[in-house]
Write a structure and sequence with these properties.
The model has no long low-confidence stretch (mean pLDDT about 90). By secondary structure, the chain is of the alpha/beta class. The protein is globular, with a radius of gyration of 26 Å.
Length: about 550
């Protein structure tokens, strides 16, 4: 993708496809050759900015906008509100206060344990809410917390995520090892815990938050209120935290919920990646935005799944709801209203409005992004999941079967800073299995664009003949020099099963050499089996203290599920 030396506007892009084997361009699409309507449709942002028609028209558009008083006033009000919020948050981060503090109040210590940033976000929102109530607040990540901090504090709020299947977030592992195993007199301390997790893992739901709560109680600390659990950043659960904190402090606190705004994307491609595989079908899913979309390698796509037409029809038959029944409050049919509702638990109801009031929205599903924006498509790798009755899972079924091609998909991009690519040319080691190749492909694509070649990929699946996802691209990277090393572990291609952690142990000396050269390790894929085995192999090869230090230094990053 490239622009002319003197382009019509900033989005006037040309596209060319180059076959490196035959050393020729197989397809060239020049922006200049497009028809006017095609140019406009592919350049909606410059059209609205005015740059599509040149700088003179862009200047006139700016003048017209400034002359619209309502937009100017509302925009100014939004700016002032955002500036105030930014000022409060910045003040909290710097330990300062944007509002005069109550001199008679005790300071609050808020500490968070976060993997993907949600707990950190809620911790700062809590800090801002307390600051607006004129309370002194300090905020710390748990990896920076010491026993002395807890012994000196009188009021502590913990915001703690549970990662994977009951683990502490990666950066909080040192806190669990050092602090939660220690004894201390905390009888002076009042505390509360906001525990984040996912009910998809019922056996370990919010378990790290509960482990913090148990340790505090065992050491004499007193609960301000019972631990509040939050399922997948559910705003109703977060509101319980706001209400409980407001009740014990007697302050009127602002809402701390996380608003999820989904954009409309179009499902443009669905391709089976592993025909005849021993494993469940895995698909390459490609989506194109209906807006200007930006993300980074390592980020996550959060999808709002829906119910299949068959599932909605069966539900309506069960509860004797006539087809095309209109929902008065929503001015749409019952079929449209039920598409994203949880249909599993229903109490008696007298009207469709009463029915919909009790049906929560379906939980969202998250997938590692396998592409970067310059590829002009958002790519996912989705494996079909089925329950005991053979019914496809909500997320995988929605993307791989129930949604027709060229249909809209509700998607939001969520930053995943703990898995972002480093900004320099230090070596990276990418380790993953199965659909975990997605997160690694985005990292390697970005490194390829940057001409950074110190890249090592270790990937595992079942059979090379059926499960070598994106083989052509990976082999091309190897021949081009984007990949310096490639180690593959196809477990079913020989009598004795071979996995990625075996490859790590085989290359132990090479691993030590790369780490000594400053390499950053990225792990993406299943937490059960692969990620835990890789973690154990790294500890055996490098030593536990070295692995812990790599975590703290941001040189051991994981996106596992």
């Amino acid at each position: 993708s490239f622009v002319d030396p003197v382009a019509q506007h900033e989005r006037a892009r040309n596209n060319a496809t180059y076959n490196y084997r035959s050393a020729e361009f197989t397809e060239v699409q020049l922006y200049e050759d497009k028809k006017l309507n095609e140019k406009i449709m592919s350049s909606m942002l410059p059209v609205h900015r005015g740059s599509f028609f040149g700088p003179v028209y862009q200047f006139l558009v700016m003048i017209a906008a400034l002359l619209m008083p309502l937009f100017f006033v509302t925009g100014w009000m939004l700016y002032l509100k955002r500036r105030k919020q930014k000022k409060l948050t910045l003040a909290a981060r710097q330990g300062a206060t944007a509002l005069p503090l109550d001199p008679n109040t005790k300071p609050w210590l808020i500490t968070y344990a976060s993997q993907t940033g949600v707990s950190e976000q809620l911790a700062w929102r809590t800090a801002t809410a307390l600051q607006e109530a004129r309370q002194p607040v300090s905020v710390k990540a748990v990896q920076q917390l010491s026993l002395a901090d807890l012994q000196q504090a009188e009021q502590v709020l913990f915001v703690a995520s549970t990662y994977g299947t009951g683990e502490a977030p990666d950066l909080a592992s040192s806190f669990e090892k050092k602090i939660l195993s220690a004894k201390a007199d905390l009888s002076h301390l009042n505390y509360a815990v906001l525990a984040l997790g996912s009910q998809e893992y019922p056996d370990t739901y919010c378990s790290f938050g509960h482990r913090i709560d148990q340790w505090l109680q065992q050491n004499g600390a007193k609960q301000l209120f019972k631990t509040i659990e939050v399922d997948n950043a559910n705003n109703e659960h977060i509101q319980q935290w706001t209400n409980a904190l407001a009740h014990v402090t007697q302050f009127e606190l602002q809402d701390m919920g996380i608003d999820k705004t989904f954009d409309q994307w179009t499902l443009s491609k669905r391709e089976l990646l592993n025909p005849d595989s021993l494993g469940a079908p895995a698909f390459n899913i490609e989506l194109v935005p209906q807006h200007e979309a930006v993300w980074q390698a390592g980020d996550i796509a959060e999808i709002q799944p829906g119910n299949s037409p068959e599932r909605i029809r069966a539900f309506m038959e069960k509860y004797r709801i006539a087809a095309s029944t209109q929902v008065p409050s929503l001015k749409q049919s019952i079929e449209q209203a039920l598409w994203d509702r949880d249909l599993t638990q229903v109490d008696p109801f007298d009207s469709v409005d009463e029915l919909l009031q009790q049906l929560p929205a379906l939980a969202t599903r998250e997938y590692s992004i396998a592409s970067i924006p310059s590829q002009q498509v958002l790519r996912l790798v989705v494996r079909q999941q089925s329950d005991a009755q053979g019914q496809l899972g909500l997320g995988s079924g929605w993307l791989t079967q129930h949604t027709a091609l060229n249909s809209p998909i509700a998607l939001r991009i969520r930053k995943n800073e703990s898995f972002h690519l480093i900004a320099d040319n230090r070596p990276i080691i990418c380790i993953g299995n199965g659909t975990g190749i997605a997160g690694l492909m985005s990292l390697l694509s970005a490194r390829n664009r940057q001409d950074y070649t110190q890249n090592w990929l270790i990937f595992g699946e079942r059979q090379r003949a059926h499960d070598f996802f994106f083989e052509e691209t990976i082999q091309a990277w190897l021949q081009m020099g984007t990949l310096k090393r490639l180690d593959l572990a196809f477990s079913r291609d020989q009598q004795e099963k071979v996995y990625v952690h075996h490859k790590l142990r085989e290359q132990a000396e090479e691993l030590k050499l790369w780490v000594a050269q400053g390499a950053v390790i990225y792990v993406c894929g299943s937490i059960n089996g692969m990620a835990s085995d890789v973690d154990q192999a790294l500890i055996e090869i490098l030593g536990e203290s070295t692995v812990d230090q790599l975590r703290l230094d941001g040189r051991y990053r994981r996106d596992v599920y």
